[in-house]
Design a protein that fits this description.
Blueprint: E1 4-12, E2 16-18, E3 21-23, H1 30-42, E4 49-53, H2 64-72, E5 77-81, H3 87-100, E6 107-113, E7 130-137, E8 145-154, E9 160-161, E10 170-171, H4 174-193, E11 201-205, H5 209-218, H6 223-226, H7 232-235, H8 242-250, E12 259-265, E13 268-276, H9 284-290, E14 293-294, H10 297-303, H11 320-325, H12 327-330, E15 334-338, E16 344-345, E17 361-365, E18 369-378, E19 388-395, E20 400-404, E21 419-430, E22 433-442
Parallel strand pairs: 2-14, 4-5, 4-6, 11-12
Antiparallel strand pairs: 1-7, 1-8, 2-3, 6-7, 8-13, 9-10, 12-13, 15-16, 15-17, 18-19, 18-21, 19-20, 21-22
Helix pairs in contact: 1-2, 4-5
């Protein structure tokens, strides 16, 4: 009997890419990427419990999972998992155990990272930023996939690591880490496949391509045919979520009924047996990769805060009290709907702007898509990537918002009539308090 099923998946990669590495923009972090991926996995559904796995939380002492839950409007339990590149698969195992025990009917597992290696380090080119979300439930062959035989091999050998006050991810002895990590990965793989019959495909979240090839060979597989990886050549190793992002990409390539082995590498290894289900793949990974544009190294250093930025820093402002007061509008995209005529508004007004009556205004969840009604380019507003494109967007289903354009450096300026989608971004920072709001970007394809 299978351990759990994948009911939905979502992925998020930054629009910028340095070589074969996805790079988060100045207004992106773990929470913005996680929120985008989670929205794709839920697609109107709910989950009883939420897990957020990351090694680069925006907070050293504060729950990022709780923040993500508030952004999504999730009212159930939420948990943070971190400290290891296996955090994503560990969160998946924990969520699966809750579902198997009957403590939750479904769970949302989100993994995201924005890791920074030292400039010029050998492993710099291999890192990438990204997020993935999987909604899981009880075993169901009609789902996207079923996962079984979870195996855990723990090992404290230092591969990649980062001290508490170190901004950069360091690397220990690469050969020692490869030998011991490869041994743990092979042991987890063999345990997961024991008695499962022949499996010809391998999804390996190892720290480098050579380790993946050696793992496949050690398992008696042909690396050229067995390895399934649509992510690493385009985005790099995306940290705690890499194994689950590879899995989401593999579901777009595997045929229904086809089996594969999933191995997550880092401080030991996790192994799983994966069987593709009958549900249609969402294509979330392919879409995320397709939005990327190339970035030069100097610009990357500026975006990462390693080198000075060309644009002006926005004035710091904001308060925790303001966020609490306007939480629904700022994070959950809540508007108001007139109980009499059904008109939707985004502002708190004493009367309806359509029927002009002071009728009851009930909460209404705003759409994340719409069309540009008006647009302007602001050259004087302090911006890290000037000019700032501002758009008035008529949302599908009602409501109107004025929003900045997201990923403007890699996209054409918005025009009236463009179809756009809303994405969460870090809008400003007041001291150590980050403020989040929505921006809009062009829908391609």
């Amino acid at each position: 009997m299978s351990f759990l099923s994948i009911l939905g998946c979502g992925a998020a990669l930054p629009a910028r890419r340095l070589g074969a590495r996805a790079v988060a923009g100045p207004d992106e972090d773990v929470l913005t990427l996680a929120a985008e991926a989670a929205a794709g996995a839920l697609e109107g559904s709910t989950a009883d419990v939420l897990f957020l796995a990351t090694t680069t939380s925006p907070f050293a002492e504060r729950s990022s999972a709780t923040w993500l839950a508030r952004i999504l409007g999730h009212g159930g339990r939420s948990f943070d998992v971190g400290g290891s590149l296996r955090a994503g698969t560990r969160a998946l195992a924990l969520a699966g155990e809750l579902v198997a025990a009957g403590s939750a009917r479904s769970a949302l597992v989100v993994a995201a990272d924005t890791r920074t290696p030292p400039p010029g380090a050998d492993h710099e080119a291999g890192f990438g930023d990204g997020a993935v979300a999987l909604r899981i439930g009880p075993p169901d062959p009609a789902a996207l996939a079923t996962l079984d035989r979870p195996q855990v091999i723990d090992d404290a050998t230092a591969g990649f690591f980062r001290h508490a006050k170190d901004p950069y991810v360091r690397r220990g002895d690469p050969r020692l880490a490869q030998l011991q990590g490869g041994g743990a990965a092979l042991a987890a793989l063999r345990k997961a496949l024991e008695g499962a019959g022949p499996v010809a495909r391998l999804i390996a979240a190892a720290p480098d391509a050579r380790s993946c090839i050696e793992l496949a060979k050690s398992a008696g597989l042909d690396p050229r045919r067995a390895l399934v990886d649509a992510v690493s050549p385009k985005a790099g190793h995306t940290g705690a979520g890499h194994a689950l992002l590879l899995l989401a990409g593999a579901l777009e390539a595997l045929a229904p009924g086809e089996k594969a082995a999933l191995v997550s590498w880092g401080d030991g290894a996790d192994g799983w047996l994966v069987e593709r289900g009958g549900a249609k793949a969402t294509g979330c990974v392919a879409r995320a990769i397709g939005r990327q544009i190339q970035l030069d190294y100097a610009r990357y250093l500026a975006l990462r805060g390693i080198a000075p930025r060309d644009g002006a820093e926005p004035e710091p402002w904001g308060s925790a009290a303001l966020v609490e007061r306007d939480l629904g509008a700022l994070l959950r995209l809540e508007g108001r709907r007139c109980a009499r005529c059904g008109a939707v508004a985004t502002l708190r007004l004493p009367t309806c702007t359509t029927c002009r009556e002071p009728t009851e205004r009930v909460p209404h969840r705003l759409s994340r898509t719409g069309k540009v009604f008006a647009v302007t380019r602001e050259h004087f507003y302090p911006s890290e990537e000037p000019p700032t494109t501002m758009a008035v967007v008529d949302l599908d289903g009602g409501g109107r918002l004025t929003l900045q354009q997201a990923d403007a450096a890699g996209d054409r300026p918005l025009a009236i009539g463009d179809a756009v989608e809303l994405v969460l971004r870090r809008l400003h920072c007041s001291g150590d308090l980050s403020g989040y709001f929505w921006k809009c970007r062009t829908i391609h394809g």
